[in-house]
């Protein structure tokens, strides 16, 4: 198995382990931290939360809260994971500056120096450019291929290397994309359950059950806030990361075109 495939397997395994672990963490925090009797009046979780006690208030959001906490924790966890991965893929310096340096080396017909720049930069863009430059050197010395075949070989090498690098950058972004609508829907479900409880309290004979009414309203509002907040964060970070990846893809394309054009200009 290649290194790239191993990395993809590791990232996929990370997601498969992280989500259940985050759910367990959310359930534990919900039951033992937010559900601590000290957060409620009379040290009884059936009563209203103590004034200003936000942990107790969130606990009154009901059974949907652990699910929404899991969603929020997933957003935070995979945002950090993608930020680290994309930062490493970027390399050690500015990508546009790196592409300019490679172009300058190509213009002076110094392929070895251009490859050295890739070794200094590292990251996904540098890996793709280096693969193209190595193929450049290989086909330039091949006497059995014509010019068009050599250019095609360079293009194919760049495309194949890109197809290995990009999936690593996009790994787990689908989770953020899924969370964006899912968090809103789960929050809406919690809102509906809370309103059902609130209206049930109003429907009782005689004076409405104030505790049940306030609990139902709290459940509705807390779940709405959790759902909308998690969804908003997922959308923001998903768009941020996709923009970063698009810029890197553009730099790869730009460098690939420069390599092919340089070969076409300096080789017969």
Characterise the protein shown here:
With 268 residues, the chain is mainly alpha-helical. It has a domain of 129 residues. It is built from nine helices and no strands. Helix 5 runs antiparallel to helix 6 and helix 8 packs antiparallel against helix 9. The longest helix has 57 residues. It starts with a helix and ends with a helix. The relative contact order is 0.13. The model has no long low-confidence stretch (mean pLDDT 85).
Rg over alpha carbons: 28 Å
Order of helices and strands: HHHHHHHHH
Taking the sheet with the most strands, its summary is: none
Helix/strand-derived class?
A: mainly alpha
Distance between the termini: 38 Å
Strand content: under 5%
Secondary structure topology:
Blueprint: H1 3-34, H2 54-59, H3 64-90, H4 95-107, H5 111-121, H6 123-140, H7 147-170, H8 173-202, H9 210-266
Helix pairs in contact: 1-3, 1-7, 3-8, 3-9, 4-5, 4-9, 5-6, 6-7, 6-9, 7-9, 8-9
Please give a quick description of this structure.
The two termini are 38 Å apart. The protein is an all-alpha fold and 268 residues long.
Features:
268 residues; mainly alpha
């Amino acid at each position: 198995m290649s290194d790239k495939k191993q990395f993809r397997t590791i990232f996929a395994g990370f997601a498969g382990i992280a989500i259940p672990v985050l759910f367990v963490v959310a359930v534990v925090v919900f039951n033992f931290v937010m559900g601590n009797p000290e957060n409620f009046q009379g040290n009884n979780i059936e009563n209203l939360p103590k004034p200003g006690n936000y942990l107790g208030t969130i606990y009154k959001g009901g059974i949907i809260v652990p699910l929404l906490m899991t969603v929020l924790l997933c957003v935070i966890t995979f945002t950090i994971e993608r930020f680290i991965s994309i930062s490493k893929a970027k390399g050690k310096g500015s990508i546009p500056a790196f592409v300019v340096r490679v172009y300058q080396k190509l213009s002076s017909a110094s392929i070895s120096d251009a490859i050295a720049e890739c070794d200094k930069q590292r990251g996904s863009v540098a890996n793709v450019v280096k693969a193209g430059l190595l193929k450049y050197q290989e086909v330039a010395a091949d006497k059995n291929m014509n010019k068009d075949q050599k250019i095609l070989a360079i293009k194919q090498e760049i495309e194949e290397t890109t197809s290995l690098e990009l999936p690593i950058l996009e790994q787990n972004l689908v989770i953020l994309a899924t969370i964006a609508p899912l968090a809103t829907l789960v929050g809406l479900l919690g809102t509906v359950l809370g309103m059902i409880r609130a209206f049930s309290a109003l429907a009782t004979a005689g004076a409405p059950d104030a505790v049940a009414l306030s609990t139902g309203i709290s459940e509705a509002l807390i779940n709405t806030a959790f759902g909308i907040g998690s969804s908003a964060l997922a959308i923001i970070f998903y768009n941020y990361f996709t923009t970063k990846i698009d810029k890197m893809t553009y730099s790869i394309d730009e460098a690939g075109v420069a390599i092919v054009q340089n070969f076409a200009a300096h080789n017969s």
